[in-house]
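Working notes for the structural subgroup meeting. M.R. asked for a predicted model of this chain before we commit to crystallization trials. I am recording the input and output together here so anyone reviewing the notebook later can reproduce the run.

Input as submitted:
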Amino acid sequence: MRPETKASIKTVLLFAITLLSATLILAYFHTSNSRLKVNRAVIERQQSSLALIDSLINSIDKTQRSLQVYPAGREALRANVITQYISRVDSIAGKLSIIYKEESPNLKELPRLLYTQYENIKILNSEFKENNRLEELSTKLKSAKEYTTQKRLL
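Returned structure, recorded in C-alpha cell form:
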C-alpha cells in the first residue's frame, strides 16, 4: 500500500472516531438534560405538595388554638374564625387528596374531626354557662358575707 493511501485511511478512521465520539457526547448531554428536566419537575411537584402540607399543618394549628380559647368569650367572632379555618383545612385536604390518593380518606377526615371538636366545645361551653357552679358558689358566698355583716351590725 502506498503511504498516501495509508495516510488517507488513517485520516478517515480518525475522522470517523472523532465524529462517533462527538455524537456520543451529544447523545449523553441530551439524555442528561432530559433526566435533569424530569428531576426538576419531580422536585417542583414535591415542593408544591410540601408547601400544601405545611399550609395544612398551619391551618390545623390555627384551628386548634382557636378552639382552645373558644370558651374564653366572643363566641360569634370566634365561631366565624373557626369555621373559616375549618373550611381552609377542608380545601387544602381536598387538594392533597388528589396528590396522595392512598391517604385521601384520612385527609378528608380532618375537617370532619375538627368540626366535631368545635361542636363538642360549643356544647361544653353552653353547659358551662347553664350550670356555672362557680357563679352559684359566688352568690352563696356573697349572701353569707352579707349575713355576717348584718349580724355584726346588730
